[in-house]
Amino acid sequence: MTRTATKRFAGLALAVAGITALAACSSSSSSSGSSTTTTTPGVTTQPGSIGGIPAAGTPSGTAGSITYGYLSADAPNWILPIIPAADNSVYNSFVFGWQLYRPTWFPWNGASPAVDAALSPVNAPTSSNGGKTFTMTIKPWKWSDGQTLSAKDMEFTIDVIKAAVKESPANWANYVPGYFPDTITSMSTPNAQTLVINMSKPVNPVWLQEDILDIGLMPAHAWAKASASGALLDYTNPANAKKIWDFLNAQAKSVSTYATNPLWQLVYGPYKLSAYNATTGSFTMVPNPNYSGPHATPESNFVGVPFTSDAATFNAVKSGSVDMVALPAEDNPQIPSLKSSGYDYYGLPAWGDYFAAYNFKDTTGDFDNIVNQLYFRQAMQHLEDQPGQIKAFLNGDGDPLSGPIGAYPQSPFLPANGKSILYPFSVSTAISMLKANGWTVTPNGTDTCAKPGTGAGECGAGIPAGTKLAFNLIYNAASPITQEVEDLASNAKAAGVNITLSASNFDFMIQNYIDPAAPANINKWAMMDFGGESFSTYPTSFGLFNTGGSGQIGDFSDPKADALINDSISSPNPSAVTNELSYLDTVEPVLWQPLRDHVYVWKTNISATTPAAFEDLTQYDPTPEFFYVTK
Amino acid sequence: MSAYVLRRIGTSIIVLIGISIFTYLLLHAVFPSPARVALGLRATDAAVAAWNKQNGYDRPVLVQYLSYMNNLLHGNLGYSYAENQTVAALFQERLARSIYLSGISLLLAILIALPLGIFQAVRRNSLGDNIGTSLAFILYSMPSFFLGLILIQVFALSFPILGFEASQSTNIWVVIGDWHDMLLPILTLTLLTVANFSRYMRSSSIDVLAQDYIKVARAKGLPERLVLARHMVRNASLPMITLIGLFIPALLAGNLIIETLFNYQGLGLLFFTSLGKEDYPVLLAYTLVGAVFVVLGNFVADIALTVADPRIRLA
């Protein structure tokens, strides 16, 4: 499931529903291709990272306040744990909501995209009945009013979700029609802490855990009502659940009352909201004394500080007025100078991918038939100079990508063929592949198909003789996308592949050049590059690369990929998604581009009781309850 | 005069309706619905359809427009689906901040630029005039973003005597009183405006000084001080009145870059952010309010001209 990071990731933005660290002393090291862990006294680094992380410490003295910066355009403006698609962003969920209502299964464990059991209020689900029955045990954490978190709370949350999506499929960001919660046939609570969910079809337990149901829970004993002063309702009655949803949804839309509405003061996460400014998007959170999970003692306040621009953000860093913030990518070259300003840093690629999509339905110049040829897509990948681009356009702060997920942060699902670049940059290899498949290659000219046909050494089905390797690529005119596509076009030209570049912007592209959104423009683009996408930690490409997927861009369709993706979401096989990733690595559904490090800086007087807290930052997933001020 | 005012109000309403139609159609021609931007790349068709229905984008454009205008006439500017607030609330929170920043800068610029322009005209080609001209050209050619960055680097970072960002308070009285944090953004805007205004004032003053009535005034022995005060300043200021009238819309949005640079939540920044989020209700309301400011600015300038120059008759 895609989460909105910022317009920058997808445009970098993943700049939508599409991303971006430092210690007591270390020196910066480029992450590109790094595969070793280094340790210096008091500081550790991870493979694929830059900067370093301070060793775990123990707070002493009184609690402080940790200020955390973000762009004002990303300022949190949604508080209810059920997040509508229009409000789905990492800032509304990870940064803001999850401090109040920790997700059922906290999806990051430091630099590892895997559930952190200690931070999760629900134990891992066990599946039975062929993957159709799930049993979940809710930990007896405490709500801030002293009540115990229970299975009823989770049941209540799911019932309200069912009512929400029935009212509108847009009311819950994780919802895909025909899947959860549509597949629920019954729920039961055999005891106070156990919830059993029966479904009509099998669901992969990790997919359910890390992608579909990673949500904050809601208090059945306080929120199951249709008005502020109303009586508690039987939420298992769908009509009541709808009333409850309507009430809670309306309350969540009143952003100016976030800090004062009694509803939102009832939490089980590490923090309670004490101030929220609807104009600026700033907030202040104070420790929830009843929080049952691990945290530093004493626990510091968590203060969100918005900045109107990257320039304003960097000025704040130079003046030392913010404790921790994501460093704007264009300021990465300034990292060495920040040490003198009292900051340390650490960077790791944010979880997700960057790519240029192919349009498998563009009939212009028979591009649909050309792009259907695997050798063509492999040759194109050979023309993508990822190491060169990382060095030239990313200040060395990135990692190559050869599939839906990168080698870093290292996922437990990473296939063996995902650990290295399958089709490394080599113009000569690309030329050889094209020649070997019936093309007359004219470096700096335009290649033409000389041997039409479907046999070995021929161009492929539907590609007539004389067909030219010339097509367009529409790109989001933002850095470093512009530089990357220009580099690609230059390398392609050297192999006789003529790419005409056309600048656009993210919003326009996703409205006009994504096949499901704009089928009328199907023949207006051959390739497009808007940035990338973020994933849940369970890295299935369901939605993106399965035939007819809701997130399809260029209608990639491959029966084997469809079967593997279906396995990933419905098979209990824990390695199903690894198989899916391994296959997608080889078939190149898109042109993979380098991952960009998401670099966080923090003041040198900030430490944490666990180093993972610093790593969490790079994934937009702050765990401020572990930070403390040392002096 | 009253007939003129009534006529101007009538034409202004027509102009505003025209702008609203044009803006509405233009926005919907580019993106009939912002659903894909609002809901994200993986939004299902069902979610897009439901969202469009929920926000009225499933109706014909004309129906949407008439509904919008109906709401507008009832004082409802719409609801921002990106910010989860009414547009009125968003404007209310930011309007005073933007008006203060732009207004105080405009006022200071007028107070500095008018005397400076007159001084340069009277002392034309002197050292002072040349220095003033050089500074004006430097500032005039300097992007506001660059000037702001230089001022921040010098006065907030290298020599931290002023704040690197504008006041973060949402209480306008606190903002007004916070000179430590507001001085740099105000100074940036003021300097840029002074550079602009002073050139106009200098040019206008030089023109007036060459007029026969100035020569006559001098020939009849009127002291130079009175020549300037009675005959030159008033006449040279006429073009400035028009110019300042045209600057009034800047009270709404002219400080977008300054707001962005100095971390100041104002209307210009709201518009910019809303563009990125395809937040139609905010974009439409902002454009309409901007149009009102333009019409109002011109209207005020016209009235002011008749006061400054009785020869001008409004009919």
3D structure, described in words:
- The complex is a heterodimer of chains A (631) and B (315).
- Chain A is of the alpha+beta class and 631 residues long.
- Chain A folds into two domains: 7-347 and 599-629, 3-Layer(aba) Sandwich (D-Maltodextrin-Binding Protein, domain 2); 352-596, Roll (Dipeptide-binding Protein, domain 3), CATH 3.10.105.10.
- Helix content of chain A is 25%, strand content 19%.
- In chain A, the strands form six sheets. In chain A, strands 3, 5, 10, 11, 12, 13, 14, 16 and 23 form a nine-stranded mixed sheet that branches. A five-stranded mixed sheet of chain A has the order 20-19-21-15-22, sandwiched between helices. A four-stranded antiparallel sheet of chain A has the order 6-7-9-8, covered by helices on one side.
- The longest helix of chain A is centred in the N-terminal third of the chain and has 17 residues, at 151-167.
- Chain A is globular, with a radius of gyration of 25 Å.
- Chain B has two domains: 2-87, no CATH class; 93-308, MetI-like (MetI-like fold, Orthogonal Bundle).
- Chain B has helices spanning 2-30, 35-39, 45-54, 61-73, 87-122, 127-140, 144-158, 172-177, 179-209, 212-219, 224-236, 238-247, 250-253, 256-261, 267-276, 280-308, and strands at 79-80, 85-86.
- In chain B, helix 5 (87-122) crosses helix 9 (179-209) and helix 15 (267-276) runs antiparallel to helix 16 (280-308).
- The longest helix of chain B is centred in the first third of the chain and has 36 residues, at 87-122.
- The mean pLDDT of chain B is 89.
- At the A-B interface, helix 7 and helix 14 of A face helix 2, helix 3, helix 5, helix 7 and helix 14 of B.
